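Good morning,

Both structures are done.
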Amino acid sequence: MRHGKMSLALWEDGTRYPDGGGPCRREYRHGHTEFTEIRMIEWLQYAVAWTFVKMLGALPRPMARSVATAGTRVLLWMRPKMRKTAEVNLRLAFPEWSEEQRRSVLRKMTRNLGWMAVEFARFPKYRKENIADVVVLDGHENFLAGQKCGRGVVFLTGHIGAWELSSYAHGLYGYPLHYMARPLDNRPLDAMVNRYRGRSGNQPIYKNESARVMLRVLKEAGTVGILADQNTMPQEGVWVDFFGTPACTSTGIARVALHTGAAVVPGYAVWDEGLEKYRLRFEPPLELARSGDTERDVVENTARFAKVIEGIIRKYPDQWVWVHARWKNRPKGERPIYEFLK
């Protein structure tokens, strides 16, 4: 199998490995002897993902959307804890809603996730000549105002709408960025994802190099895109209000913005039913708190960023990823919100 067809297909697909090794090899020690085991599960995961992405990219867009939406529904049915997490989150965020309102949002969220998978699969079809047929810019003067400051731009966003398409489209419009990324455990799959993302000029920044690279990019007046709506480990974040409940939130954006003077510009791509296109909306650059007390300013600005993300989600509740356990980590002494995730 080491020199079989699947290995050849992986290499022919353009995947590159930094150590020069094969796609799915892991080093193990047995006594004093080292040996390499091929992880077949990684090959299978990659093959399934590659096939699904290529299929969606080849199908007509309406048909691909139907297939991807159905696939997302099946996935949520197979992962009841994800579905339960979404239900808990919606009750927490919108306690005044009826159950039917929450179910409606979940149905639309499922559709949105399927549609975004289709847009990702179609990245090779999108070019600067046709991207306006799919994504229109809205409030782009706000991004340009942040850029004009000359100290770089932090593209503040979340898992809202077609977040993969937002940065990709902006790159095709002539404004590529560096994006924060955590490498996938499956190396061939990680390489494929980043190869697709990079077709419009975007480049990843991995966690182990994030601070150094971010500072360099901003010093050169570049743009860094950061998803700011994820649960964070307590040692890496602070507790700020999010939909009325404390949520552990990364302080990285606030620290970088305060240190560099970079403009923080909220941006997100949401589906516009009237236009039948995605609208890539940029809000005005955010004013940062600067009291002279660094730690106090970090907490205040992190809270401001969380409030901005919350406001966007409230405006487009069906376009956020409610399956994410946003409130998983809790302040010391508090009961867990997701008891079923223990």
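Second structure follows.
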Amino acid sequence: MIRLESADCCDKLDTMADREKTGEATGVEEGAATSEETLNDLLNPVRQRRRRTTPIRRSFLQDPSGEGMEAPLRWFVRDRRELALDLFLLLNCTASAPPWDVEMAAMAWARALDMRQTVGSETTVSKNWSWLEQKELICSERHHRLRKVYLLTEDGSGREYARPKKGEPRGFFRFPFIYFTDRWHQQLSLPAKAVLLIALSQKTTFTLVTERASQWYGISADTLQRGLEELRDLGLLSTWLVSRKTPRARLGFTSVSHHKLNAPFGRQGEP
């Protein structure tokens, strides 16, 4: 008799688990939150104080010497840490006030980034947080079985984070939430994401000679070129040649490629 009751109990638990997987939880009218709902909750305009962008220091792209060999962006490209980059950017968008932290389950971060809701995704997110912590871009602690993640300064120095202000050496650029809300994080490759960040840090019209930029940002010329081409193919970047008279050049002139970001990333009315 006891065995039958135990079997019945197991059957009921299996049924409840099946319902939870399909969103048909017992006694709950609403299903699980979707990826869009999770992301919208994180980037809620009221919670974010009406912000649509977040400031990121240029030291994330280049080290103080003006070279890129020790700048964090290079680490992401070198180690192919595309997910870690998206997590770091999303944390910058969502940590809106001191102590610049977000407490959320790894599965919820995975859902916000449109990852499959599996234990594997949960583990992958956790491993990438750990990688970011090793690079001293974040720190974290356990709180009620959840990982509370804190921003650290963008240069990888491990210093306590403070919101960038005007007048700081090397300054900062503004990273738009639309990167996530329009799902560009899904569409762009890692080289394109790196070039997008570099482009956002430039003036409205800019040059990016890949051989020189490779030294400035610590990213190979081939990777930068692939990123530029992908942004152009997607209509996010316009490129044109500007020629100038150069008496000692073979043809008497030289040409340099000029670039400009287009909507939704382009900035209007800026120099």
